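hiii so um. not sure if this is the right channel but i have a protein structure encoded as tokens and i wanna go backwards to a sequence. like what aa goes where. can anyone help
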């Protein structure tokens, strides 16, 4: 067993150990997740401007969310069948009580929610976009 007689050495060792521990804990930010009901855009919205200004394109992997910044990439999982898809938030909505996301038709097909129309989903942020100008 070693005996540390130099108190300065012990203090430095203790301080560096604490700093290492704190830095390891600092990066443990939990990702945003949300559970609720999800649906998809009706065909009549194809080509119309989204809140971000981009036109809605049914063939793209996009979504509407009420609070996440535009450009945020989220993973949407259909809780009923376990199927998931990654989409980019480019619109605000849904505007129906109890719903947390509207996805494009392509995303809806990948999730297997076309027939049901509304399914329980779980959202997880994969890549957070910066907040700032243009966010409504």
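sure thing!! here u go:
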């Amino acid at each position: 067993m070693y005996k540390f007689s130099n108190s300065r050495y012990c203090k430095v060792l203790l301080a560096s150990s604490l700093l290492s521990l704190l830095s390891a804990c600092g990066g443990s930010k939990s990702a945003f997740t949300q559970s609720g009901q999800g649906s998809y855009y009706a065909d009549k919205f194809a080509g119309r401007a989204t809140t971000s200004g981009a036109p809605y394109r049914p063939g793209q992997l996009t979504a509407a969310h009420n609070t996440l910044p535009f450009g945020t990439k989220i993973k949407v999982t259909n809780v009923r069948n376990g199927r998931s898809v990654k989409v980019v938030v480019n619109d605000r909505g849904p505007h129906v009580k109890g719903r947390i996301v509207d996805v494009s038709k392509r995303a809806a097909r990948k999730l297997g929610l076309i027939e049901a129309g509304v399914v329980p989903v779980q959202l997880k942020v994969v890549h957070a976009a910066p907040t700032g100008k243009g966010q409504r």
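oh and The chain has a mean pLDDT of 84.
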